UniProtKB/TrEMBL annotation:
The keyword Cell division does not apply. It is a single-pass type II membrane protein. Its main location: Golgi. Keywords: Glycosyltransferase, Golgi apparatus, Signal-anchor, Transferase, Transmembrane. Coiled coil: none annotated. Belongs to the glycosyltransferase 34 family. This is Xyloglucan 6-xylosyltransferase. It is found in: Golgi apparatus membrane.
């Protein structure tokens, strides 16, 4: 079967030793776990030129969020493995980054077409301390479902037969992961935390029409249905509501900027009342 690389069975111990030997690369900084946000897009342009324009906005949005919160970011446009082209490209990439950055506690994949809509909210990583998944092992069983060609096609049929409402098409990484988790529940599920207390992955439908209402009633920092942390759009195929990204003045200039500096700094917005 296909594999992403040699099986690594002593990662946890090896990493612990590496961290002890390399105190200049701590996995916790100021009490916070070191996070690497990983995203990327296909090597070629989008079919639709406006799609590329949104990819640019989208990477800017991620860089802004990461700068504010001290998160490192990688943008990948290469296919590291020919067989893992397309949406499966994230698997070899994540594995490579994990192995070459043992100082990173969390690798956070984010689709190119997902945007931070709450620049203040932070992932409550302490909630997941008892869910220390064996990520390399998971990648080892997940990746063999993805090689382009007959395997991806045949696996797609299995996924469609087993996942309610899935249309018939080749295996995608996300359906494959869900299928894996439910078909091997005993092996994985006690280490899986499906987060639904905030919008890690809010879908644009049902959110975008409510943005104005949210702005009126709430404030950044909530991350949930009142102010979605992330809104996921539709790849290189944007919808009409986004075609005019004009900006407008929302307050007047002041001669005493420092009087209000805290109020206008979004990093302090958490402390404002709704
Ligand atoms: N992606 C990538 N390289 C590719 C194809 C996809 O890095 O060649 C990433 C990209 O970030 C994209 C995500 O994988 O947002 C999911 O891809 P998919 O085709 O499922 O859907 P999209 O998000 O483009 O609608
Ligand atoms: Mn997407």
């Amino acid at each position: 079967t296909f594999s992403l690389g040699p099986r690594i069975s002593t990662w946890d111990e090896d990493r612990k030793v590496w961290l002890q030997k390399n105190p200049q690369f701590p996995n916790y900084v100021n009490g916070k776990p070191r996070i690497l946000l990983v995203t990327g897009s296909p090597p070629n342009p989008c079919d639709n030129a406006i799609g590329d324009h949104y990819l640019l906005k989208s990477i800017k949005n991620k860089i802004d969020y990461c700068r504010i919160h001290g998160i490192e970011i990688v943008y990948n446009m290469a296919h590291l493995d020919k067989e893992m082209a397309g949406y499966w490209a994230k698997l070899p990439l994540i594995r490579r980054l994990m192995l070459s950055h043992p100082e990173v506690e969390w690798i956070w994949w984010m689709d190119s077409d997902a945007l931070f809509t709450d620049m203040v909210f932070e992932i409550p990583s302490f909630k997941y301390k008892d869910y220390n998944m064996w990520s390399l092992d998971l990648l080892d069983v997940w990746a063999p479902m993805g090689p382009k060609g007959p395997i991806r096609e045949e696996t797609g049929k299995i996924l469609t037969a087993n996942l309610k409402g899935r249309p018939a098409f080749e295996a995608d990484d996300q359906s494959a992961l869900i299928y894996l988790l439910i078909s091997q529940k005993d092996k994985w599920m006690n280490k899986v935390f499906v987060e639904n207390s905030f919008y890690l992955h809010g879908f644009w439908e049902g959110l975008v029409d409510r943005y104005e209402e949210m702005i009126e009633k709430y404030h950044p920092g909530l991350g949930d249905e009142r102010w979605p942390f992330v809104t996921h759009f539709v790849g290189c195929k944007p919808h009409r509501g986004l075609v005019s990204p004009n900006i407008k003045r929302i307050r007047n200039e002041t001669g005493t900027p420092l009087v209000n500096v805290d109020q206008f700094d979004i990093r302090h917005a958490v402390h404002q009342s709704g």
